[in-house]
Amino acid sequence: MPGQRQRAGGAGEELEPIVADAVAQAGFELEELVVQQAGRKQIVKVVVDGDDGIGLDEVAVVSRAVSEALDSRDDVLAAAYTLEVTSPGLDRPLTKPRHWRRARLRKVSVTQAGGDAAAKFLARVGDAGDDDVELLVEGQLRRVAYTDIEHAVIEVEFKEPPAAEIAQLTHEEEGSR
Asked: What's the family (predicted)?
């Protein structure tokens, strides 16, 4: 599956290893780096994530680490800049096994590779491995290889998922919940 990280041209290509290293030292992973010109300043947008997600306090830690790294490399980013550090939004495509692990028991919209309309379906996420994910589709469990998934995103739900679906995905007896 294609990766999420976007490489920015120009200064962004030189900045990426610097930013990725600072983010990694803070204990997270660089998802995306975008460098844009905005008048006389540049906007450096850094999207970070981790296996357990990232909270506001952790965003602040990463922001300080990236800021220090950028400030120490004036040769790469000589102009004034605005740094934006954020976590991926709910609409981020599920492209890596860890994205699927974090989406466990969530409802997702999946488009299978191949592109015909019948290849799009809603499912609930079960166990995610390194190469495939267990999905509950219309009451049936099935394993789907990541390579067979063209696009997948989390669907927002406003009510609790049905207990029967959760029991099926957690391999519990419904009465033992």
From this structure: Belongs to the RimP family.
Whole-number Å distance between alpha carbons of 133 and 171:
15
Please say whether the beta carbons of 169 and 126 come within 8 A: yes
Query: Under 8 Å CB-to-CB from 85, ≥6 apart: which residues?
Result: 46, 48, 59, 62, 63, 66
What CATH number should be reported for the domain whose range is 11-86? 3.30.300.70
Within the chain, how many helices (H) and strands (E) appear? Answer: 4, 8
Whether CATH 3.40.50.12280 fits 97-171? no
Q: Cα–Cα distance between 140 and 105 in angstroms, integer?
A: 14
Q: Which tens digit of pLDDT belongs to each residue from 51-105? A: 777 888 999 999 999 999 998 887 777 678 899 999 887 788 998 898 898 889 9
Q: pLDDT band for position 118 (50/70/90)?
A: low
The burial of 140, by beta-carbon neighbours within 10 Å (0-12 exposed, 13-18 middle, 19 or more buried), is given as: exposed
Domain range annotation of the chain: 11-86, 97-171
Q: Are 135 and 123 in contact (CB under 8 A)?
A: yes
Strands 120-128 and 132-137: antiparallel
Tell me the pLDDT tens digit for each residue of 154-176.
Answer: 998 899 888 999 999 987 754 44
